[in-house]
Amino acid sequence: MIDLHYWPTPNGHKITLFLEEAGLDYVIKPVNIGTGDQFKPDFLKIAPNNRMPAIVDHAPADGGEPVSVFESGAILLYLAEKTGKFGGGDVRARAEINQWLMWQMGGLGPMLGQNHHFRNYAPEKVPYAIDRYLKETNRLYGVLDRRLADRAFVAGAEYSIADMASYPWILPDAQGQDLADFPNLARWHAAIKARPATEHAYAKGKEIVPQQAPMSEEAKKVLFGQTASTGR
Question: GST C-terminal domain location, by residue (predicted)?
């Protein structure tokens, strides 16, 4: 059994995508990031960066004590190793998958996250910042579109953790993009959306947050006002 400390955000969805695809037993432990659950001492013991998702695996492969893992990319790698699924069957396949997983963790997620922030949440509109991250989002969509021109999935013919990492971040309406401009990306996105496990994963999010409401000013203070002393 795996405890998943989760909130329905792109990074949270990555992990439910894997768990549903692999058919692993798991229990969701909601972490309401808008009210500050991520700063609770028990959560910080397993996620010292005060960010979800995080997991606790009560049945690790070595049969020992429970294993806790934070950071969505590290969790995907851990689960791929645990199950032998979606992580590549040989050294070349793993290298292909892992480089695109790192691309998502280091580029796609952070840049599109800044797009969300300056377009939707910043207390004042900063034209330079909005334009900067809008263009970078467009560039990264283009990278994926070109990559998918001659393959079904990001790392090749097989669905993998590289796809699971990137898919939840492709939110064209929220990011000022038009998928019609990226036909290969659009095809890939539609294919993943139609997978039963994807439907199940996103349904889990709807159970936690049935309807997405505008972010309150109090939640913005919690999410965007953190300093080194916040979690003390």
Answer: 90-212
pLDDT at 220: 78
Rounded Cα distance, 154 and 104, in Å = 11
> 79 and 164 share a domain?
no
Residue of 142, 196, 151 lying closest to 170 (CA atoms): 142
pLDDT (0 to 100) of residue 231:
61
User: Please, are residues 48 and 37 in contact by the beta-carbon 8 Å criterion?
Assistant: no
Chain-wide mean pLDDT for the chain?
A: 95
Count up the domains in the chain and report the number.
2
Residues 78 and 95 grouped into a single domain:
no
For 59-113, what is each residue's pLDDT tens digit? Answer: 999 999 999 999 999 999 999 999 999 999 999 999 999 999 999 999 999 999 9
Q: With beta carbons less than 8 A apart as the criterion, state whether 22 and 85 touch.
A: yes
For residue 120, report the phi and psi dihedrals to the nearest 5 degrees: -120, -25
Query: Same structural domain for residues 165 and 152?
Result: yes
**pLDDT at 19 exceeding the cut of 80:** yes
